[in-house]
Design brief:
Number of helices: 5
Order of helices and strands: HEEHEEEEHHEEHEEEE
CATH architecture: Beta Barrel
CATH superfamily: Acyl-CoA thioesterase, double hotdog domain
Strand content: 35-45%
CATH topology: Porin
Largest sheet: 12 strands, antiparallel
Distance between the termini: 35 Å
Shape: globular
Number of domains: 1
Helix content: 10-25%
Length: about 290
């Protein structure tokens, strides 16, 4: 049997149909639709595959237009928008059933020196001093929809350790901040392009959920609808996705059935390696309208 990490790497390794046309498979991890991080990681993989110079991704800006079908492959078309003296830009369109479900622009840059500063990493316990999340008791798990059961009961490719754990099945109200250590559960190769695609995948975990904290709700409640609308990701410094990284997240605002969340990703030495931002739909339906 293949491991979850091997499955994820295979998922991010797209089939090349033409010079700028790729096909990716989808994986059912318990979400109702295709997991947004999967599309982010695959789109970045497609863009990286069209570079003719060894330039590193430094930013990605994406919009989710339609829910993805888990049962169908996704075709990615890459537009080679620009190859300049120092920067390259790619626009990636994801298509399913003849319709655009997602598009993004990714920018790449030659390595060069320059001024440098960063904000400090929050003072938090080390990952080895935190307990892994406890398993949900079978009697509670059995009361949840089948897809949610698979989501909560699966052994995924990433390990997460929350600095301030929250009971997602009975969420309390609390300020919109959280810190989560995460890493791949296995060591992988050294290719920086792979680690950036892996981080794009992982950056969609726990981000939007932070916007629900002040309201005592969660994605697992049947009357709560949540979906990513856009996602931005900036790569600052080299990192490895198979070593511990700290995801420090806050949500400055929620309004109009939308929530905004921002994240900073640090390695364990305190280097800021990436930043994220995401806005998503958050709807709380009357109980009678719950599916």
């Amino acid at each position: 049997m293949t491991s979850p990490v091997s499955e994820l790497i295979e998922l991010l390794s797209l089939e090349r149909l033409e010079d700028d046309l790729f096909r990716g498979q989808s994986r059912d991890i318990g979400t109702k639709y295709v997991f947004g991080g999967q599309v982010l990681g695959q789109a970045l993989s497609a863009a990286q595959a069209t570079l003719t110079q060894p330039r590193a991704a430094h930013s990605l800006h994406a919009y989710f237009l339609r829910a993805g079908d888990i049962e169908a492959p996704i075709v990615y078309h890459v537009d080679r928008t620009r190859d300049g003296g120092s920067f390259s830009v790619r626009r990636v369109t994801a298509i399913q059933h003849g319709k655009v479900i997602f598009f993004c622009a990714a920018s790449f840059q030659d390595a060069e020196p320059g001024v440098e500063h960063q904000l400090s990493m929050p003072e938090v316990p080390k990952p080895e001093d935190l307990e892994p999340a406890p398993a949900i008791p079978p009697e509670k798990l059995a009361l949840l929809p089948i897809k949610v059961q698979r989501w909560l009961d699966r052994a995924g490719p990433f390990e997460f350790r929350h600095v301030y754990p929250r009971d997602e099945l009975n969420p309390p109200k609390r300020p919109p901040f959280q810190q989560v250590w995460f890493r791949l559960t296995e060591t992988v190769g050294d290719a920086p392009e792979l680690h950036r695609a892996l981080l794009a995948y992982a950056s969609d975990f726990h981000l939007l959920g932070t916007a629900t904290f002040p309201h005592g709700i969660s994605y697992y409640q049947p009357n709560v609808q949540m979906a990513s609308l856009d996602h931005a990701l900036w790569f600052h410094r080299p990192f490895r996705a198979d070593e511990w990284l700290l995801y420090s997240i806050d949500s400055p605002s929620a309004q109009g059935a939308r929530g905004l969340a921002r994240g900073q990703i640090f390695d364990r030495s305190g280097r800021l390696v990436a930043s994220t931002a995401q806005e998503g739909m958050i709807r709380v339906l009357p109980d009678k309208a719950a599916p």
